[in-house]
Specification:
With 136 residues, the protein is an all-alpha fold. The chain is built from 5 helices and no strands.
Length: 136
């Protein structure tokens, strides 16, 4: 089973993909990659807590699982509610419009926030790590 560091590495990669895609205005892909980053960050925390990883894209369900160990995850419920639909919303042009720049920027902001939040939770004592990885 992959460790939490691998999950965070892939979560960071999704966030970096989103930040690259915003520059060329591929907004539906930006919000999709942000949702994926958010999801993988939560799964990284569950791996850190030695929990099984459910096969779900539901950020609310994943947050609830994380809250079993740390009630502070409740603070991320608004961000999760906002980003949760992006696993499929905007993926099919016949059903939804393309997100606008403001939506995309908020999505990136929320994703950076959960990445920092989870990263702080999984820093291992004695690892020598004293700073948070920059997700900007």
């Amino acid at each position: 089973m992959l460790g939490h560091k691998e999950w965070l590495r892939i979560a960071k990669e999704d966030l970096l993909a989103a930040k690259t895609l915003i520059k060329i205005e591929l907004f539906s892909s930006v919000v999709y990659h942000c949702q994926q980053s958010f999801e993988k960050a939560l799964k990284a925390y569950l791996v850190f807590k030695k929990q099984p990883i459910p096969k779900t894209h539901d950020l609310i369900k994943l947050l609830e699982l994380c809250m079993v160990f740390d009630k502070n995850f409740q603070k991320k419920i608004n961000a999760a509610n906002y980003i949760n639909p992006f696993s499929s919303k905007f993926r099919y042009p016949s059903e939804f419009d393309i997100p606008d720049l403001a939506e995309v920027q908020l999505t990136i902001k929320y994703t950076e926030s959960i990445m920092r939040f989870v990263f702080k939770k999984v820093i291992e004592p004695g690892s020598g790590q004293t700073t948070i990885v920059d997700f900007k």
